[in-house]
Amino acid sequence: MAKAVRTRIAPSPTGDPHVGTAYVALFNYALARQNGGQFVLRIEDTDRQRSNPESEAQIFDALRWLGLDWDEGPDVGGPCGPYRQSERSEIYTEHAEMLIESGHAYPCFCTRERLAELRAEQKAAKGRFGYDGRCRSIGKDEAARRRAAGEAHVIRLAMPSDGEIVVEDLLRGEVSFEAVQIDDQVLVKSDGYPTYHLANVVDDHLMGITHVIRAEEWISSLPKHVRLYEAFGWELPVFCHLPLLRNADKSKISKRKNPVSLNYYRRAGFLPEAVLNYLALMGFAMPDEREEFSLAEFVEAFDPAKISLGGPVFDLEKLVWLNGKHIRDLSPEDLLQRLREEQLSDEYLLKVLPLAHERIDTLADFVSYAEFFFVGDVDYPEAVRSKMVGKGLTPPQMAKIFRRLLEEGLDPILDWKIETVEEAIRDFADRHELSPKQLFMPVRIAVTGRTATPGLFDTMAVLGKELCRRRLRCAMDILRTMKA
Ligand code: GLU
């Protein structure tokens, strides 16, 4: 009997939940469901500095919103746990020792200074960058002695030094790499933490993953991973590298050019089924070429061998169009239900109402006063545009300030609330020597389209990070077209 299909999504919890994670999760989910297998969620948090529990929680939320439920994972458990790499340290240490023992890996004692010198030499010689394998020749006993004496070291994988490494990718067939181009990869860092490569391969094996479907950017890791499988004597899974989602200019999808956070799509009123439908279209065409379909229909028709390799361009307008089609398929009762779950939920209305309460005289006033809390993008009437530029600044300067405010101040906030937003904006103003007046009014207009609104930080807290960042980006586009 064929082995049960087991797939996984293995996000690193280091920021907002990314649309690329949903894209990769969708294909893994479909393959597992289609074959009656399991879909596993594993959290790859070996980068201790960048990993964040808030980000992890948001990934869970976003994937659940989309309906991509998993059978095993940190929050639901399962037979191969723990499913968070930070809780599996001993497993990696044990496996690294196995590799040292069998001669497939070795401790490397080269200091930071030596590596920097090596790099400088390679640069001067215009040669290839990479570790030169010096510590490979240290005898096992001597290496063991130096480790026991506490000498700082990393553990490296011994890669073959010549010949070709040929690996199989489901979509590309055989892909070959020249061995000399591939470094002796670090498997365990000097702090004892594993790198992505070791943890990823060990976990995929121990978790019984049969198909590794992931983004194309990992293809360069493939020879190292295959080498690890061979070194452990493990059977290879099927590898399938999905084409990356791209901006219109074909660069890798980025938040400068497209909303990439799943939170944005939810907040801006997209239906989860439309987002999934759109993501499926990015890599797959239905046999009858119809563009609108449900998750269940996709699961049934999906064939991983038919994933198209072209660089799919993420087109927000097309997603809006598709979302419209899904919206029109809903019965009025269902549509009402959806509105009540998101835009018109009691929870959200109760956040908006206190901000409008003092400022309305009739119930009808509420609708016009609070409009910007309910729409996606806002308009910037001619009359407010000039006020979107702080005194003494030019429109291009203001656009730049908005960009830096996003990058330095707002983007890094994971716990978005009045206090964190206020602190980020005030700090930014101080650092860049901007008066509150110069900064606050332009930001207010950018995020609401108006000059008179409830308190700026309260308003931004309720609007949420995603709408604020999207509107600041729209405002930047307008500023760039304004005369200085
Ligand atoms: N942690 C990696 C990521 O964030 C996983 C890559 C893989 O699927 O192997 O994308």
Your description of this structure?
- This protein has 484 residues and is mainly alpha-helical.
- The chain folds into 3 domains: 163 residues, Rossmann fold (3-Layer(aba) Sandwich), CATH 3.40.50; 149 residues, Glutamyl-tRNA Synthetase, domain 3 (Alpha-Beta Complex); 100 residues, Arc Repressor Mutant, subunit A.
- The strands form 4 sheets. It has a 3-stranded antiparallel sheet with strand order 3-4-7.
- Helix 6 packs across helix 7 and helix 16 packs across helix 17.
- The longest helix has 17 residues.
- The radius of gyration is 26 Å and the shape is globular.
- The structure holds glutamic acid.
- Write down how many β-strands occur, each being a DSSP E stretch of 2 or more residues: 9
Uncertain ranges? none
Strand order of the largest sheet: 3-4-7
User: What is the name of the CATH class of the largest domain?
Assistant: Alpha Beta
Small-molecule binders: glutamic acid
**What Rg do the Cα atoms give?**
26 Å
Helix-strand string: EHEHHEHHEEEEHEHEHHHHHHHHHHHHH
Structural class: mainly alpha
Q: CATH superfamily of the largest domain, called what?
A: HUPs
CATH architecture of the largest domain: 3-Layer(aba) Sandwich
Shape: globular
Whole-number total of structural domains: 3
Please estimate the helix content: 40-55%
Mean pLDDT: 95
Beginning-to-end CA distance, first to last residue: 71 Å
Q: Give the count of helical stretches.
A: 20
Estimated share of beta-strand residues: 5-15%
Could you say what the CATH topology of the largest domain is called?
Answer: Rossmann fold
Major sheet, described briefly? 3 strands, antiparallel
